[in-house]
Amino acid sequence: MGVVAVVVFLLLRLTAGDPAAIIAGDNATTQQVAEIRVRLGLDRPIAQQFAIWLGNVLRGDFGESFFFKKKVADLILERLEPTLALSVCTVVLAVVVAVPLGVIAAYRRATWIDRGVMALSVLGFSVPVFVTGYALVYLFAIQLAWLPVQGYQRLHEGLGGFVTHLILPSLTLAAIYVALIARITRASMLEVLDADHVRTARAKGLAEMPVLLRHVLRNAAVPIVTVIGLGVALLIGGVVVTESVYSIPGLGRLTVDAVLARDFPTVQAVILLFSLVYVLINLVVDLTYTVLDPRIRY
CATH homologous superfamily of domain 84-292? Predict the structure, then answer.
């Protein structure tokens, strides 16, 4: 996390664009821009700026947004629900769809089912998120008028609207995630299908479904869980694009707006939050290994 904080802080200040000039506007004088820089503390040496910012962060103060004129912590809390809802729906949808697809592809290996699943996986992984998003909007929202084009409805405003506004964004974001998990599931299953314990289970007369689920899938679960955790990086990147396509007021959209406005405190806080979530999820994944495989101990 410390490395992330240093890299993000330096990259933002080394990139082109002056927040003071953006805030002042096109018609501002040099004196006005300089006054804003002093007010924001941007006139100080970078090392001093970093020390002040890091000290505030350690106290739980992420500062005030240059662009939104609000506390960054309050901004994040306001935008957290849409991103959290979209991410959870995407992960659940991806796992529910991708794992069975991978299992079926492995069980029916070298058949048209296997080739079809792998073709869909390659397509889902290759097509950019925004292309998938616009295609789904055109089909289901514009042509068929089944779902809203854009926007987000909070849960307390009604469950129906909350769900309908999440369907298209979740499908868009899940496409690449499904492709990744399905391919890894298939590969992991193929490694276990011909193992000795699987042949023994079949020789005992066990039905094929218990063999697949209890003896094959469970022993192939470690790589699958690993890729689910690693896929959070794809999920975080996809959230930024998906929320922009569907005009969802979440953390991804906040990040885009903050980057365009050179809103340093907001960008730094959001990236730190994403990094913390990524680290925590991968820690949970590592701890899950001991449940899936008792031979693993930490």
Answer: MetI-like (1.10.3720.10)
